[in-house]
């Protein structure tokens, strides 16, 4: 699909998830980079390890987040979550999802 790319920083486990990112804000101050925008992914499963802090709010679709060694959490439109640096697990996009995100990364 035009404009879609493989998820960066994720290892695809199943399917062919394609992602799109619309960054609306980017700033660096005091060694911390903050960004926000919209992110979309088609169906698929990938493993991930967050190196940054992220708050996200699901606008549409369904995603199942399973922390390593933990129980799966199903998130739908209206749900929100915070990922801490070092959070490791699986991300299964059940239905194409769109989320609004804010990230902070120490550089």
From TrEMBL:
Domain of life: Bacteria
UniProt source species: Bosea vaviloviae
Pfam families listed in its UniProt record: Cupin_3 (PF05899)
Protein name per the record: (S)-ureidoglycine aminohydrolase cupin domain-containing protein
Domain (S)-ureidoglycine aminohydrolase cupin positions: 33-101
CDD domains: cupin_TM1112-like (cd02227)
SUPFAM superfamilies: RmlC-like cupins
Coiled-coil stretches noted in the UniProt entry, renumbered to this chain: none
């Amino acid at each position: 699909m035009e404009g879609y790319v493989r998820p960066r920083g994720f290892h695809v486990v199943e399917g062919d998830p394609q992602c799109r990112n619309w960054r609306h804000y980017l700033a660096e101050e005091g060694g911390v980079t903050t960004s926000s925008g919209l992110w979309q992914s088609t169906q698929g499963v990938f493993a991930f390890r967050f190196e940054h802090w992220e708050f996200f709010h699901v606008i549409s679709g369904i995603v199942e987040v399973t922390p390593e060694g933990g129980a799966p959490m199903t998130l739908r439109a209206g749900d929100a979550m915070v990922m801490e640096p070092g959070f490791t697990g699986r991300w299964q996009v059940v239905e194409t999802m769109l989320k609004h995100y804010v990230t902070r990364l120490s550089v």
